[in-house]
Amino acid sequence: MSRRTERVGNLIRNTLGSLFLAKLSDPRVDPARVSITRVETPEDLLTAKVYISVAGGDKAEESRVIAALRHAAGYLQEKMMKQIQLRNTPRLDFQIDEQYKKTLRTLNLISEVSEELRLKDQARAEAHESETPEE
Question: Per the CB 3.0–4.6 Å rule, which of 11, 61, 98, 133 could disulfide with 57?
């Protein structure tokens, strides 16, 4: 990904984020729970893969959100075109960010293991204190 496509992707992400909050009134999309994790654009900037995450959502809710966003894609492109000055407005393709979900699962596992290790160290320290004679 070149620096230019990365900048355009970030610009699209920020613009869509503000559009979600201000202009999108579909009840299937709760802007407090739906976030754009990243946007990938090819060098020609004709398309943009918009990866989203639904906080606390199951597969059914994610499907409803994706369907709603795909339905509103033309509207969002039109509003985005007025805010971003590009030769062509990229066609938006919304997808659930599976990589983000995997990262969250990994972080949760690391947190659980860290907590287990902390508890074991604490138990060891308490056992060691009870073994040493007091003077």
Answer: 61
Assigned token pair, 2: 């070149």
Task: Write the CATH number for 51.
Answer: 3.30.300.20
Q: Please, what is the angle between helix 3-22 and helix 73-83, to 10°?
A: 110
pTM (2 decimals)?
0.75
Domain count, the chain: 2
Are 26 and 76 contained in the same domain?
Answer: yes
Q: Give, in order, the Cα–Cα distances in Å from 1 to each of 36, 88, 122, 130.
A: 18, 19, 47, 59
> Per-residue pLDDT tens for 27-57?
888 888 899 999 999 999 899 999 999 887 7
Q: Which domain holds residue 106?
A: 98-135
